[in-house]
Design brief:
- The chain is mostly helical.
- The protein is 50% helix and 0% strand.
- It has a domain at 10-46.
- The longest helix is centred in the first third of the chain and has 29 residues, at 10-38.
- The mean pLDDT is 78.
Length: 80
C-alpha cells in the first residue's frame, strides 16, 4: 500500500483536496500579512516628508504688538 496515494473513497479525497487548497490560501494570506506589517513600515518611514522651516508665516497678534486700541461707538471702521 502506498502511503502517499489518496484514499479510494471519493468523499474523503474531496475533503483532502479542499483542505490542501485551503491551507495554501491561508499560507499565502499569512505571508502577505507578515510582509505588509514587517517590511512595508520601513518604506513609510523613509518617505517621510521634510517640512521647510524657512518659509514666512503670518505673525500672531502677540508678535505684532497686540490688538489696536478700542474705538468709540460712533467712529466708523478704518477700512471704510
Amino acid at each position: 500500500m502506498n502511503p502517499f496515494a489518496l484514499p479510494s473513497n471519493s468523499v474523503a479525497s474531496d475533503w483532502l483536496v479542499f483542505a490542501a487548497i485551503l491551507l495554501a490560501i491561508g499560507l499565502g494570506i499569512t505571508c502577505f500579512v507578515v510582509w505588509f506589517f514587517m517590511f512595508r513600515k520601513n518604506k513609510k518611514q523613509r518617505r517621510k516628508r521634510q517640512h521647510r522651516h524657512h518659509r514666512q508665516h503670518n505673525p500672531t497678534l502677540a508678535e505684532t504688538g497686540g490688538l489696536p486700541p478700542p474705538r468709540s461707538p460712533g467712529e466708523p471702521p478704518r477700512g471704510v
